[in-house]
Amino acid sequence: MTEHVIVNDAGGIRTIRMNRPDKKNALTLAMYEAMTVALESATANDAVRCVLIVGVPGAFSAGNDLADFLNAAQSSGGLNRAALRFLPALVRCGKPLVAAVSGVAVGIGTTMLLHCDFVVAGTDARFSTPFVSLGLVPEAASSLLAPLLMGHRRAFEFLVMGHPLNATHAKDFGIANMVVAPQDVDAEALKAAREIAALPPGAVALSRGLMRGATDELLARIDQEAKIFSECLHSPEAKAAFEAFFARKR
Questions:
Q1: Least confident piece of the model among 112-116, 208-212, 229-233
Q2: Which pLDDT tens digit goes with each residue over 145-185?
Q3: What's the rounded Cα separation, in Å, for the pair 139 and 119?
Q4: Secondary structure of the chain in the HEC alphabet?
Q5: Parallel, antiparallel, or unpaired: how do β-strands 13-18 and 178-180 relate?
Q6: How many CB atoms are closer than 10 A to CB 237?
Q7: What CATH number labels 5-181?
Q8: Domain segments of the chain as ranges
Q9: How many CB atoms lie within 10 A of CB 173?
Q10: Contacts of 15 (CB under 8 A, 6+ apart)
Q11: CA nearest neighbour of 111 among 132, 127, 95
Q12: What is the average per-residue pLDDT within 116-135?
């Protein structure tokens, strides 16, 4: 596992905290693995009634650790299995998902929220999906969920043009349920998780299942996106975009 993901169970709530503040919670392959295990085991644990996903002050997640991600992709010829396991684990998680978002939420840091049931955003939250600017395509079934949630034109502006959203826009577009002061994000999300955990778990699971419907289409879209994403990683466009990105970082 990794010290960059802290998992804690208390009062029927499993808290999964991304804890790599020096890199704004950019996700490594080890972090993906730890979060996947935490989600999968939560489904099988009757004592867990709700899962709360949190970051650190100023950073929910800066998305993939691009160096780690690109090295794994080049060595395996495509996307790493750790990243690919995480997305279906989100879809298949049998417990309600609550997220507390403060600061940056980039790439997967935003698209994972589309699978959550309740999202609290701080006024400092900034949501961005710079896939296309890197020569890539959206993932996590966001190409399906975002147009359903916010309409085609807004989703195109967000996913393709890469225009970021502030917390108010995220609430207006259905990504967040509520916007609070940054220092109150974790407490408000925990409050929502406790409210959910106090409800009859069987009725919650049945109601959530009815609302979400069959997951086959989501899983199929994740697979389709991953195939195209892997192909794009080796395209001249993506190679040029990554070279430019790392040149700016030097």
A1: 229-233
A2: 999 999 999 999 999 999 999 999 999 999 999 999 999 99
A3: 19
A4: CCCCEEEEEECCEEEEEECCHHHCCCECHHHHHHHHHHHHHHHHCCCCCEEEEECECCEEECCECHHHHHHHHHHHCCCCHHHHHHHHHHHHCCCCEEEEECCEEECHHHHHHHHCCEEEEECCCEEECCCHHHCCCCCCCHHHHHHHHHCHHHHHHHHHCCCCEEHHHHHHCCCCCEEECHHHHHHHHHHHHHHHHCCCHHHHHHHHHHHHCCCHHHHHHHHHHHHHHHHHHCCHHHHHHHHHHHHHHC
A5: unpaired
A6: 12
A7: 3.90.226.10
A8: 5-181
A9: 17
A10: 6, 7, 8, 9, 51, 52, 54, 190
A11: 127
A12: 97
pLDDT tens-place string over residues 45-98: 999 999 999 999 999 999 998 777 667 556 655 556 777 899 999 999 999 999
Could you tell me which residues are beta bridge partners of residue 5? 18
**Given the structure tokens 């916007």, which residue do they identify?**
179
**pLDDT confidence of residue 250:** 66
